[in-house]
């Protein structure tokens, strides 16, 4: 009994601490993101992949970069590849201390869903689960992507059911482990032939267990000093209006016209789009051969001489801003602080219906949105994805590892639980009053 009371008080302390943390946990409610303190969350993010394997295991480098990102005005990083067995505590703490959240991809080069020969098997599920196991423990882990630009043309849209199956099974795994409901969704290539079918497909259907909890687009349409109408952003807004889950830009930063002005941020985070879109992630932090970097760690060197330099570009050190791009983005973000809506007001009135599932079209989107999804290890034939009948397996299926867990409680356990909930209500009420 005493041990239970102590555990209860510790839970209360951690809960109240989370309310006042620099990076309180984020959740998806309806079509918006909210922090644990009830504020709507808008993304001002940076793509952050210093090395191909895992940039989140070098604590000192993370501290240097986090400080520089704080100066820039960033509140999020996107990391595409991580090692689930690495020690990430130092880096996650460094970013949390300055209010920066992690948006992390669950796939890697060996485990990604491929467009031409899509699969969703036990090995992929296990690999995705290992990354979730590692990063769910951090309050500043904002969300998980199950894929990045898997579909790049309408001709490979039959890969979409595998992406949606990955969403379904990772949600089930998260919930079976009693993890925090960190949102799970997808980062899409901005392909006109897939708009808006893919975004509607991932969020449609009567079964909430299968629907994505957010959708995002890698958008490079706004180049130079473009405009809301000229860039095509007005069409993106039209497609997203009334969408039932959060939607945001997961990559942006066209460099066709230099220098980059980042004037698209005023549209995304301004009155034209901020009521629908939840912000944007700019590509990218480090200067590389592709010339998208906002900072560098020194001049280009001979990669055969410097082991730290990949393709000649140093991967660690003191960040030096790339001018004028860094300053241009900083100036844009400094003027953009949408307030959004409070969770208490939004949740009381929000009633959003999922979009209709798209149907297959000859020469275009080829998936019937009502067709059953593949189970783990199952391969669908093209006829099954284009119909709403039960798919015929052409490969072996295996049981998903996600399963419900639970157990009974004693009477004294229930009593302590009830007391804990009551105290939690009092403490949280006090926190709000403060």
Task: Please explain how this structure is put together.
It is built from twelve helices and 14 strands. Strand 4, helix 3 (about 90-95) and strand 5 (about 100-105) form a beta-alpha-beta unit. It is an alpha/beta fold and about 425 residues long. Mean pLDDT is about 85; it is low at about 1-20 and about 390-434. The protein has helices at about 1-20, 60-70, 90-95, 120-135, 160-175, 195-205, 235-240, 265-270, 325-335, 345-350, 380-385, 410-434; strands at about 25-30, 30-35, 45, 75-80, 100-105, 140-150, 185-190, 215-220, 245-250, 275-280, 295, 310, 315, 320. The strands form four sheets. Strands 3-4-5-6-7-8-9-10 form an eight-stranded parallel beta barrel, surrounded by four helices.
* H/I helix tally: 12
Q: Could you list the spans in which at least 5 consecutive residues all have pLDDT below 50? A: 1-19, 389-434
H and E string: HEEEHEHEHEHEHEHEHEEEEEHHHH
Strand adjacency order, main sheet: 3-4-5-6-7-8-9-10
Strands, count = 14
Strand content: 5-15%
Q: Globular, elongated, flat, extended or rod-shaped: what is the shape?
A: globular
Which structural class is indicated by helix and strand composition? alpha/beta
Helix content: 25-40%
